[in-house]
Hints:
This protein is α/β, with parallel strands linked by helices. The protein has helices at 2-56, 59-62, 92-109, 121-130, 147-163, 210-286, and strands spanning 76-82, 113-119, 136-138, 168-174, 184-190. The chain has a 5-stranded mixed beta sheet, sandwiched between helices. α5 (147-163) crosses α6. The longest helix is centred in the last third of the chain and has 77 residues, at 210-286. The two termini are 30 Å apart.
Amino acid sequence: MAKGRELKGRIKSVENTRKITRTMEMVATSKMKRAQDRVVAARPYARALADVIASLYNPDLAERFPLLRQPAKEGRAAVILLTSNRGLAGAFNANLIKEARALIARLEAAGSEVELHVVGKKGNGYFKYVGRAVAVSRIDITDRPTAADAASLVDSLMARFIAGGVDAVYVVGSRFNSALSTPPTADRVLPVQPPTAKGGQKDYLLYPSAEAILTELLPSYVRNAVYRALVETVAAEQSARRTAMKNATDNAGEMLNLLRRTYNRARQAQITQEIAEIVGGASALQG
Length: 287
């Protein structure tokens, strides 16, 4: 019955694994819901900022604001890659790294010198493995990112952009369209591309002036773009982890069914053999 005991041990092991993956699926579902709420909450503010900037923007003002400066050539570009600190999320991190590598390849092919800013253990681990230098490495941003986290990522780059030390800043993260659609994306956050007003130009009463308002709003607009990328990437991560854990739970269930059927067949075969031996022994005694 050695095979039967081995099968029972495997069944117990798979049952324990399924309990763990089911629990992780439930945790990821809860975290995804909270992260999705943060994504939804961030969108109205982002739309309001975009509408105000679109209504205030004109080419004359643009010449006086460094964040709106459109360089003729991106001689030096910074790429901020957002990944997670934890795995067990399917191809989530691999897809983000692939998107970042493709962006870096395009920029370098166009003659840009690219510096890499990586958030998350998974991205940092990959680029350390391949031997690519990372200008900034961050693993302190949790799955509840804040506006302060976004500011800490981009404020120094904004200062360098204004000083002419960098010509463009890109953010690679995931866009959370729905629980089933979280594609990796690469968005340019600097220089600021003046948004288009939706629903037509709005008539604002400006105080003290459009120039003073833009001075405050443009940095906020850039920080908000990075903050939205952070919260959407977290929501996408939890969605990917939930899917991965659900698939693992389903696969464990299928494996359990197969192991139980195999165990039952082995047990039936043993019982049949024992009955045959008893009947054979009884026949020998009678003879």
